[in-house]
Amino acid sequence: MIAKLRAGSQNPFKAEAGSRPLLAGREDETRRLTEMLNLLCGKREKWRGPLASGSLPPFHVIGPRGAGKTALLDWTRRRAEERGFHCVSCTGLKAEGIEFSLQKLAANAAGGMTKLDHLRAVLMVKASERLGSGKMRLTEPPFMDWVRSGLRRRPVLLLLDDAQDYDLRLLSRVLWNSHILIGRGWPLGLVMAATPGLDDHLLKDRYLADYTFYERKLRIKPLSDEATREALRAPFAQEGVTLAPGALEAMAAQTDNYPYFIQVVGGETWNEMTKAGRKDVDVKLVEQIKARARIERETIYKDAFRNLVDKELLPQGRQVIAMLEASGGEMPEKEVVKALIAANPGVNNKTAYEICDSLREDGLIWTLGSSTKPGIPSFFSYFKEQDIEEPASDST
Fold first, then answer.
1. 290, 323, 338 — which closes off a domain?
2. Could you count the other beta carbons within 10 Å of the beta carbon of residue 129?
3. Residue 143's pLDDT is what?
4. pLDDT class for 244, splitting at 50, 70, 90?
């Protein structure tokens, strides 16, 4: 008789935005983030003063939705807390309640303030917002002063997730003040995760038009076959589940090596297993979830495809697909840009790069270094299969 899972066991896979799955295959990314943490723990010029060695520009973690950006931020937070950092995680800066949003972020960054100090922070930020009349005032002290009060005690790490959706005024204020503190050598780390569209969002603010903090970019790389299998294997193993020969490969074949789909396939497999009262997984069981996993993937693809329709980028998407197929699946980004300019009247160098950013936003293509490749392979195929009717021309 097959024993049931131990009481309290929950599905370790979470296929949802902002989930925090097992981090696998991110050695290069975690190495660079560890280097940042090491520097921020360095010797100070004087007691509670700036760092003797200076600080590092913030990290801009870039990847399409579901690529594992939140998992990387969570890994960074846990490592920083282990080393005594005060960490402030932010998942949204919205236009509603501007004073409260800034006050809360500043107070959290200060860390450990008394109730009286907290009240003073609230009043200072609210007053500055009223006096500012919506204008950027870089000399205004509240946010910067309260963050610096936390930095005097220990290093502070700000983690901004899904930053492309933040209210631009608030994001601009946070970035500028952080930029000044980092430039002065204070032990402040900032890791901001966003889709490729963040750059266009930032450039809408004239104070950020020439701001170079986000040049320290950390692009999420595709997972290897080995990392995909480990991300599937480890959660089952931790719960005492046995994977029969071939089961792991059968699951991995449905994921496209994409973190979000790893969570979908792993989660559906887990649910099927527990429904049957089992604590083992074989190839037959994995086959039973294949249709559900495909439906989940195609739901994501439909949304991504609709985004491209709304942006009127289907012709350019087809052009880039044809280019990549003709070049063996890989092409220098500069050549993609040149080809888009040549094929589309009115498209210049700037707009061609913007087109590439839009195609990267939902995973149709991806660029690492200077090389552009298909993003999510099965989305690439899904895009090609869509037959969009062109508007009929008027007959005379």
1. 290
2. 17
3. 65
4. very high
